[in-house]
Amino acid sequence: MSDTTWKRTKYAAEIDEDDYNTEMTLCGWIQSTKNLGKMAFIHIRDRSGLAQVTALSKTMGPELFKEITSIPRESAISVRGVIKQSPQARAGWEMIPYYVKVMGEAKTPLPLGVVDKVDADMDTRLDNRFLDLRKPEKQAIFKIRSTILSATRDVLLEEDFLETHTPKIVAAATEGGTALFKMEYFDRPAYLNQSPQLFKQTMMATGLDRVFEIGPAFRAEEHDTVRHLNEYTSIDVEMAWSDDEDTMEILEKVIQRAYTDVINNNFMCLEALKRTLTVPERPFPRITYGEIIERLQEKKLKIRDEGSGKMRTIQWGDDIPTEGARIIAKERPSLYFITEWPVDLKPFYIQPKDGEFRVSKGFDLNYGEKELVSGGQRVHDPKLLKEMFKRKGLNEEDFHFYSKAFDYGMPPHAGWGLGVERLTMIISGVSNVREVVLFPRDKHRLVP
RNA sequence: GCCCCGAUGGUGUAGCGGCCUAUCAUCUCGGCCUGUCGAGCCGAGGACACGGAUUCAAAUUCCGUUCGGGGCGCCA
Asked: Of chain A's two ends, which shows fewer C-beta atoms within 10 Å, N or C?
């Protein structure tokens, strides 16, 4: 029989009075060693929290004492000993060890201190992400992210959606506009997909009716901000026989459940992040694009005219610049929909609301100045789709693989795409999108 | 792509022409300590991104390179 004494009996946080005076094994990383000479306190950290191992030279002998106190911090170890009640210990108990095995010794000095009293730059942290993520407040973000994803799946499956996956390697430009990463597909050029948009819409012509996909999206834009990534995770939803209002309602349910589940399941994480949350009420406030422009005009927001290059007051038809979004965010710091966007500011697949191609059935969901979601009712009439291609200056031929589905019975449909990272940022209360991705990909960072 | 800003021990910083043989904290190593949990005390170790220029003198000024930070546009 193989020796299994090194295997974990319980996580630190699972140990209680019933375990007192029993022999157990703790597994984790040495967070700190406080050596008082004849007595030492070794704090072992595992996923659940901290455990105190109290070593006594007198009872364990000077050799084992020396051995256990000289293991470098952040080494992965397994300690076996007896759990003893202890009023002086924070947890009310401590382990008196008799056996220690170093499973993975840490080199010194550490490239990044886990509990050091000095902060490290984001760059240093990301270069040593495995150490950075040993910090409970960094782990908390990813536990929250996981909850958000499972909450999303729960709601969508309850609402009769089917989870799907579409290709990330594509032959040609998808929506147009965004720059794509080029790659080699055997002997042909190919691209990494910027969004599942065209594929999920194609699914609407199949009879599957309601689909969603959680997957990566790639954008080759050289945007270098705290809210953009070149690889991000998108929750994409598309529903047939539905309009913009139907899909907004599903979105509200998803967001609401994400908040609820995080509050219910990640109490400790929120505490680690010093974050208090309240579940947003449905329906979320709706404000039209036109109302936003009027408000910005009242605030005398000036923008640079694309044609003349001169500064002028913002007007209907202009995109909302970052500065404008901040002005609105002061009045609406939480979640709100922006509806009735101009047709010209939305992609070709967004349904115009009228025959004049002025206002569309596209919407955004914002949290303050942050854009969280973009969605809308889609164009489903093939004739109108052709006209939209023309209006946007797109070549219909390039989209044949997609438009073909519209020629054989495409029902009305609507949907949206939500940035998982942005929702995680909002719920976790962190300000840099890189915080919520294990190994973020931005303009400069490709390793690790 | 454009505009600002920055680079000093493992980590985070101070210094911004000579007083620098470079500050402080953290860290690492050694010593003392039987109740530590931001331990304490004593001792030691470790750095001016790279290349050029100006100057009697450069961590400090200038140019270039590399790397990083922030903002704009665009977006999720």
From this structure: N
- Closest CA relative to residue A426, chosen from A359, A346, A335, A347: A335
For chain A, the average pLDDT equals 92
Nucleotides of B under 7 A from a protein CB: 1-2, 10-13, 25-30, 32-39, 45, 67-76
Domains of chain A by residue range: 12-104, 136-285+332-436
Q: What is the CA radius of gyration of chain A?
A: 27
Among all protein residues, pick the one whose CA is nearest to the C1' atom of B35.
A88
The fold adopted by the segment(s) A12-104 is OB fold (Dihydrolipoamide Acetyltransferase, E2P) (2.40.50)
Please report which confidence band the pLDDT of residue A267 belongs to, taking 50, 70 and 90 as the band edges.
Answer: very high
Contact indicator for A77, A7 with CB cutoff of 8 Å: no
- Could you give the C-alpha distances from A359 to A151, A298, A344, A413, A419, in angstroms and in order? 33, 22, 9, 18, 25
User: Considering only CA atoms, which residue is closest to the C1' of nucleotide B71?
Assistant: A225
Checking each nucleotide's C1' against the CA of A372, the nearest proves to be B76
Q: In the predicted model, is pLDDT for residue A388 greater than 70?
A: yes
Shortest-distance nucleotide from A233 CA to C1': B76
Residue A172 pLDDT: 75
pLDDT tens by residue, A180-216 = 888 889 999 899 999 999 999 999 999 999 999 999 9
CA→C1' distance for A118 and B20 (Å): 25
A385, A399 contact by CB (below 8 A): no
ipTM greater than cut 0.90: no
Q: Å from A304 (CA) to B57 (C1')?
A: 50
Q: How far is the CA of A123 from the C1' of B8 (A)?
A: 17
Grade residue A1 by pLDDT with cuts at 50, 70 and 90.
Answer: very low
